[in-house]
Amino acid sequence: MNYALTDEQAMIQKMMKEFADEEVAPGAEQRDKDKAFPLEIFKKLGKLGIMGLPFPEQYGGGGADTISFAIAVEELSRACGSTGITYSAHVSLGGAPLYLFGTEEQKEKYLVPICTGESFGAFGLTEPNAGSDAGGTQTTAKLEGDQWVINGSKCYITNASYAKHLALTAITGNEHGKKEISAIIVPTDAKGFTVIDNYEKLGLHSSNTTELVIDGVTVPKENLLGKQGEGFKQFLITLDGGRIGIGAMAVGIAQAAYDRALAYANERKQFGSTLSKFQAIQFKLADMAMKIELARNMVYKAAWLKDQGKKFSKEAAMAKLYASESCMQICSEAVQIHGGYGYMRDYQVERFFRDAKLTEIGEGTSEVQRMVIAREIGC
């Protein structure tokens, strides 16, 4: 068992850390206040060849592995949670389904622009009545001649305002009283397709979270992604990979909160000593450091299993669950260590606290992760 990063992984880590510190972190607080999407940052990431990092070079990707993807998400999230989730969703929700289930023609047409940064990746799954129960999908797609006619709506969709196309799930039939769900690729500029960006969110203010209204949208028959009726299975596979991204995002945010708390504890004096000299604070920081290390190891293990072609559903759920809940705890403690300052925007830990909550919800809530784990262990 080798815990050392490969030369390529270490190089990506170094590059992403420097990029996050120099390009992402400086404007993170202002972007959060202004709710400004970090478009210029992603243009730079595109020039660095990071937008398609884990996809093959033949599609404009970087040919790297899932561990490298996790490292990139972690470093971006350490500087800015909004940037981290934008990148994670771009790859794991936008690009991955196309790569895993698309035809060669679909990959050339739709995956390449995602890898080059010409388009952002997005995935239309969640609906007003289909959150944790994605099988409750109500969006429909009827085949009329050689065209799919799609009607319905989606909510909480990341990146759709900046995506030129996305895959979405829809009911394409009903067999023996059971919904047949398929995935279909839809251009976002199609007639009848509307993207609405007006959510008021707790955190991740500079990420793009949208509602989709699909009113009589028509796309060619060949825009079906994979086989008809396999959409449910496809998005379960997609979410497994996405959980590695959210886990890495949680590790990055937790690391940022811990770094701030440690620095503050070493500087702030109370009762004649720095906070870091008090055992109560030392124990908090020790627990924070331990949880980050354990979460990172679990995320990297899930990524390694995926790269090895081994089963990783259980480990991805464990990594996402532990990393997200630890992140929330660590951010709460970071605010507590800062005292009254922690409640104020100037010290940034309140932003980490707000951003952290999404990691316990996105890509399946903590409760859903426990359901997945229970199923995988034979309950």
UniProtKB/TrEMBL annotation:
InterPro entries: Acyl-CoA_DH_CS, Acyl-CoA_Oxase/DH_mid-dom, Acyl-CoA_Oxase/DH_mid-dom_sf, AcylCo_DH-like_C, AcylCo_DH/oxidase_C, AcylCoA_DH/ox_N, AcylCoA_DH/ox_N_sf, AcylCoA_DH/oxidase_NM_dom_sf. Residues 122-217 form the Acyl-CoA oxidase/dehydrogenase middle domain. Residues 6-118 form the Acyl-CoA dehydrogenase/oxidase N-terminal domain. Keywords: FAD, Flavoprotein, Oxidoreductase. Pfam families: Acyl-CoA_dh_1 (PF00441), Acyl-CoA_dh_M (PF02770), Acyl-CoA_dh_N (PF02771). It comes from the Bacteria. One of its GO terms (molecular function) is acyl-CoA dehydrogenase activity. It catalyses: a 2,3-saturated acyl-CoA + A = a 2,3-dehydroacyl-CoA + AH2. Its cofactor is FAD. Residues 229-377 form the Acyl-CoA dehydrogenase/oxidase C-terminal domain. PROSITE patterns: ACYL_COA_DH_1, ACYL_COA_DH_2. PANTHER family: ACYL-COA DEHYDROGENASE, ISOVALERYL-COA DEHYDROGENASE, MITOCHONDRIAL-RELATED. Belongs to the acyl-CoA dehydrogenase family. This is Acyl-CoA dehydrogenase.
